[in-house]
Fold this protein.
Amino acid sequence: MDIHQAESLDLVFKHVAKLHKQTVHALLSGKGIYPGQPPVLRALAERDGQSQKELAEKLQITPATLTVMLGRMEKNGLVERRPDDADQRVSRVYLSAKGRLKHDELSSFMYEMEALCFANFTMEERIVFRRLLLQMYDNLVRADLKPPKPDEAQQ
């Protein structure tokens, strides 16, 4: 299908979002950063030493998913986990020096990615596009629709 011929805005939006995600993942994997890791690096750069529970809640992922992700990141030297000083049952996550460098690389990469995506846009078009995306976001938040849980979908 030629995406330029599609009449549905939803279809165009889905194709652009999918291609954007694929491009980001392809470019980041060459830098040793894998899907899911950029939000962790950003969250820890903003506030280092979060508990795994806090981090999972902030990223809106399950603690089990985060544990697997942190294991990989720890193995690659991006983060380190340490027990909390006050409560040994709580594990706190910290960026390593290598993790800080990767976060800095990620920040500059995101500027490059934005430049690639908006290369033929005027500043006014960028401003309008941002406003429209935020309007779309607000519409979806206001709709407050939650997908049914797997067991509810079958009923």
